[in-house]
Each structure stands twice: as C-alpha cells, then as structure tokens.
Amino acid sequence: MKGSILIVDDEPNILKTMTIGLRAAGYEVTAFEDAEQALKTVDRDILGEKPYDLAFIDLMMFPMNGIALMQELKRRQPDLTVAIITAHGTVETAVSAMKQGAYDYLQKPFELRELTQFAQRVMQSHHIQIASHADHEIITQNPTYLGVLRMAERIAPSQLTVLIEGETGTGKELVADFIHAHSDRAAKPLVKVNCAALSSELIESELFGHVKGSFTGALKDRQGRVETADGGTIFLDEVGEMPVAMQAKLLRFLQSREYQRVGENEMRHADVRIIAATNRNLEESIDRGVIREDLFYRLSGVRLLIPPLRLRKEDIIPLAERFLADAARGAGAEHLTSPILLADAVQSALLDYDWRGNVRELEHTMLRAAILAGPRGSIELVDLPDHIAQRGTADGQTSTDVYTSTGTESLKSLEDIERDHIARVIARTSSLEEAARVLKIDSATLWRKRKRYSL
Predict the structure, then answer these.
(1) Residues 115 and 190 grouped into a single domain
(2) What is the CA radius of gyration of the chain?
(3) What are phi and psi of 387, to 5 degrees?
(4) What is the total count of domains within the chain?
(5) Does residue 58 form part of some domain?
(6) pTM for the whole thing?
(7) Which residue range forms the structural domain that includes residue 130?
C-alpha cells in the first residue's frame, strides 16, 4: 500500500467516490460521514499503533466543522498531514485553514485523476516531513519550502552540482545535509568548508592540501578537504566570498576532478560532488566582477532558493517549540521545565516579528527565553528581547491577514496576489519548468520573479 488515508465528509456520494478512487490508486482508506465517529476510531487506531499518513477533511460539516476536526486530529497525531476539501464559495476559509496547519485544499467538484494526483503530491510531502523530523533537522509545513525539499530529494541521487541560495540563517547547511543524506554518497563523508572564514592564502591549502615546506608554517604534508571527501560530498558555504584567483582553480577542479596540492607538481584525482551555498545575489556579483561567470554556471546545476522565515509564518511556532524542547534537554538545563510552553501573547509576538536573522535568530531567542524563564514552565513576553516583545503588544495584525479584526476586507496589492499565486503553483508542480508552463511564462521570467519575491 502507498499509505493510509482518513477521509471525513458528510456527503455520502463524495465519500464513496473518494474511497473507491483512492483505494484503486493503492492507498489504504478509512472513511467516515461523522466527525465524532472518526475521532473515536482514530483514538482506537493510534492506541493500536496504526497512525494515518493523510487526512482529507470536508470543510463545511455540522456540528463539528473541518477546522475543528483538523485541530482535534493534530492534537492526537501531530505528524498527520491534513488536506481540506472545499466548495468554490469557501476557498477563503480553506486558505485560513492552511494558516492554521492544513497542508493544502482540494476544491469540489474534482475529477478522479485530479484527486489521485493531489493525493500523490500530498503523500510525497508527508514522507519528506516525516524524514526531516526523524533526522531532527528540517521542520516545515510551508508549501514553498516543501517544494524545495521535493526538488532536493529528486536530484539527490544525481551527480549534479547544487547551488543553495538564501538569506543568512535560513538553514542552507541543513538542506545540504538533506541532499547528502538522500544521495548515493550518504555512506561517504560530507566535508564542509566556510569560504568566508578562510584567508585567500589559506583557502587553496584548505581545499587541496599542501606539501611540507611549500609555505611558511607548512611543517608537514597535509591532505585537503577535497581528498578527505573522496567518494562523498563537499559543501562550500558562502562560496560568494571566495577570492577570484581561487575561483579559477575551483573551476578547473569542477571540470576535470583533478587538482594539485600546494607546492606539488603531482596531479591528483578526487570523486566528489559539490554543493555550494551563498547569501549573496551571485548574478549581481558577476556584474561587479567578484564572481566568475563560468564558475557561477558550473555551480548552478540545480539552484534551490530557501524562503526566509518571515515568509514561512506557519513554521515559526513549531520551530520555537522545537528549540525550547532542545533547550530543556540540553546540558546544564536541569533547572528548566520540559515541556516549556509559549504564552498566547508570546506566540502573537513571534508571528508578528520579521525575523531578519531567520531561523538562527529564532533559535537564539528561544534559548535566551528558556534560560530567563527558568523553572516557571512557560515563556512570557518579559522573557523576549524588547524589540520582539513589543510586537506582541501592538495591533496583532500581520501583513498576510486577508481580513481585519472588524471583518472589513483588507485588499491585497497586485504584487502580493502574484507572489501568493506563484508560490502556490511552484508548490503544486514537480519542477520549475512545469511551473513556468502552468503560469504561461518562460523559465527565466519565473526565476526573476522567484528572486524578487524570495520564493
């Protein structure tokens, strides 16, 4: 079986059609017309260690609606991936459900082929999330980021070079770890080099090694990171900081997989895969003459753009809770309470803050808050830095709200609508080429728009 799916819909015909179609596609399906009965069965199945992978829930049910049922199901099984089934007139409410934890929505009426393709995509994202959680690395429910991870998983077994782009603190190194772990090289070393931390004099020796006496301080032969990584992967972090002279030598290695130790004439060979990362716009760096254009294209076998945390609002609270749990389990944390809870006002402040330092800033903020909270068992506004805590006492509205608290419609700009639509298409297609075809634009235009909107 491809996986287990729970369906709850109070329309018998829809329920029957979905059950037949998904079972024919190879899924194990459990279906209910009544939400309360579904919850009782889920309680029994979880006790029997039979959790579900996906839940397809009708939005408009009575007396328990789809959002309330989703919250109850996720309380029982937090790793359950939920998709909402909605009619045309309730799409806005379905979008609201996505903000509260639903992965996506399927609009009625739908064809059987559309249903099975939708189920396949949602199941794929579910498995990526489970794998990420099991590795205790990447935590996300964001459709754009999940699309990046889907692409990363698809290209992991290949030998393509990968360029990971994103702001500082977004977790580019974690994506490199993810790619290596899902590649055929996973049993071999993953060697990491921070190009920004090495001087122009040392970076060549660090990468390719040196022989005794080749420069002052070279007291013995030393193998480089390339040799250490033979058969595995090298991760070049902040590759945009690499000196131009060294870029030519890296390019030569990328073309031939051959190199020389500093001070040695012997040509050596290493079978390594290159993954590079940068927080710079390398195309602008080419224009300024600080990055070689030929190196840029050699590194760009596949380009993955990690969205900043401010565009991943649904990930902020799960990440914060994870960092608090880590803090409570850490060394010297005997005085901390586990689990440490987030007060409602704190959650509002975290969601309203821009997180220019991204996930790294959130992690440091939660560690600080856990220490200040001590044995209290909950994080309060007083435990947050002032510039974050003040957001929790503001109006509480975020830039992504569709409606204000008074119910008056807050119209989005055309740019916001375009960004949201492009993000949704990217998340629901298997490649950027397919996304460009759906959007009816060329790939270059799509890339420029992704850069513009940080998608």
Answers:
(1) no
(2) 25
(3) -70, -20
(4) 4
(5) yes
(6) 0.61
(7) 4-134
